[in-house]
Amino acid sequence: MYVYGRNVLKEIINAHYPVKNIYFTDSKKTDKTFKELIELTKKHKYSFSFAPDNVLQKMVNVSKHQGVVIDIGKEFKYVDETILNNLRENATIVILDQIQDPHNFGAIIRSSLAADANLIVIPKDNSVEVTSTVIKVSVGLAFRIPILKVTNISRFIETIKKHGFWVYGADMSHNIYYETNLTGNVAIVMGNEGSGIREKVKSKCDALISIPMANNVESLNVAVSAGILLFEIFKQKSGR
Amino acid sequence: MYVYGRNVLKEIINAHYPVKNIYFTDSKKTDKTFKELIELTKKHKYSFSFAPDNVLQKMVNVSKHQGVVIDIGKEFKYVDETILNNLRENATIVILDQIQDPHNFGAIIRSSLAADANLIVIPKDNSVEVTSTVIKVSVGLAFRIPILKVTNISRFIETIKKHGFWVYGADMSHNIYYETNLTGNVAIVMGNEGSGIREKVKSKCDALISIPMANNVESLNVAVSAGILLFEIFKQKSGR
Asked: Per the database record, which ranges form the RNA 2-O ribose methyltransferase substrate binding domain (chains A, B) (predicted)?
């Protein structure tokens, strides 16, 4: 799988994420920030080579690769469920129930790390996966937060309840998000762009929380909703 | 300009927005929600006709038109600056300084109406405009909130200051958004996806406000940031 972009490479190196090879464009070897990236790559002993722009473009099928394409091997490395034993106290888990849009997923990854969430969970089926577009939209932050793929979201919710998590579904409800105590071990479930959280998954949640809206608007973009809820959790956990 | 989608048509009718013609697919005339849409169109005396799917597809260049294409005439109807004389007390203005991505713009329109903002402002140059993609992403809400295009953002900020607005730029700052009083007549300025607010525009702001972030993440997706700030303003103005 090929991923691309300068920020993406920086985050890969930051995260010491293992890759097969890094391809730099051969047309910008003298560019200053570019030289620094190559130095960083050398310093961390990553394998790299140079290639013409049109070869890079063919690898990733986009022109805005910024002169950097990274071969990260067969698939993005998801974590497994044993991570639940290693989460810190007062952890935050973000569960995405069948999100479809890579831009939404990428933006949610970015917000999750920024709001100090500790794990993102997606279902194996009917969900966007971590693709090169998702990684690009996440500005490479997908390499810095654990992402877990599970067979069954409902069963996963039961599992984390046993680990002491309180699970909130983002849905129409009388519980206003900023009037709800979101400290401690907490998970939020965000639903599909069109249809929201599936009924079966919703029934597993401890409570539903809602963002009050004006002008009879029914819902927000899911990445925006997730951002609002995640930063409320972050604020409350910071003791504000 | 052709726009498309069922929600988009609903919002056009809700807003009594004048259009040239509405084209329905001729393949779904018996579909229930579809019939209701046609009834609504008749009731509000909009002109409409039927056309084959492939004709609709050619008009909008996408396949997911949901059987509804609307010809809204030459250009989307922006408001003019006289709107400033008709804003309510304690109004909220959203100023977008050279946003490029139609998905971001559409999501911000949706959040703005949902958070009870009263006006969205974009610059004439180097900015995404209200296109059919923007309208689709806004789920048609672009027809329900005034959008103004100005030649010069800096000068516009000077104008609204005279109208009693306090102008906040979203940028790195020591002023944390939820510790800042955002009631009264308030405007927020959101910057370009890559480079943020231009220096000249920033210098016109009364203050900068910032969303504190963990893990050295430098910024969020601009639609997410806008959503977080807009819903903080909405919350404060609701007296919570």
From this structure: 2-78
What is the spatial distance between Cα B38 and Cα B24, in angstroms, rounded to a whole number? Answer: 8
Q: Return residue ranges of chain A for CATH 3.40.1280.10.
A: 81-237
Nearest chain A residue to B141 by CA: give it: A217
CATH number of A81-237: 3.40.1280.10
Above pLDDT 70, what percent of chain A? 99
**Is the distance from CB of B92 to CB of B165 less than 8 angstroms?**
no
pLDDT for A83 beyond 90: yes
**Cα–Cα distance, A36 to A31 (Å, whole number):** 9
Model pLDDT, residue B63: 83
Say if residues B229 and B108 touch (Cβ distance below 8 Å): no
Query: Are B115 and A221 within 8 A, CB to CB?
Result: no
**Inter-chain residue contact B110 with A141, CB threshold 8 Å:** no
Q: Which residues contact residue B55 at a Cβ distance below 8 angstroms, ignoring those fewer than 6 apart?
A: B23
What residue spans in chain B does CATH classification 3.30.1330.30 cover? 2-71
Residue B29 has pLDDT above 90, yes or no: no
- CATH superfamily for A2-71 is Ribosomal protein L30/S12 (3.30.1330.30)
Q: Which of B215, B217, B228 sits opposite A227 (nearest CB)?
A: B228
**Nearest-by-Cβ selection for A224 from B211, B213, B224:** B224
For residues A106 and A227, the answer to whether their CB atoms sit within 8 Å is: no
Average pLDDT over residues B91-97: 98
Q: Is residue A119 classed exposed, middle or buried when 0-12, 13-18 and 19+ CB atoms within 10 A define those classes?
A: buried
Phi-psi region of A196 (alpha: psi -120 to 50; beta: other; left: phi over 0): left
Please say if the pLDDT value at position B137 is more than 80: yes
Query: Given an 8 Å threshold on Cβ–Cβ distance, is B107 in contact with A235?
Result: no
pLDDT at B82 over 80: yes
Rg (CA), chain B: 19
B168-182: per-residue pLDDT in tens? 999 988 899 999 999
Cβ–Cβ below 8 Å for A215 and B144: yes
Instruction: State pLDDT tens for residues B185-216.
Output: 999 999 999 999 999 999 999 999 999 999 99
Q: Is residue A240 scored above 80 in pLDDT?
A: no
Greatest Cα pair distance in chain B = 59
Distance between CA atoms of A233 and A182, rounded to whole angstroms?
6
Q: Is the pLDDT of residue A31 over 90?
A: no
Q: Which residues of A touch B109 (CB under 8 A)?
A: none
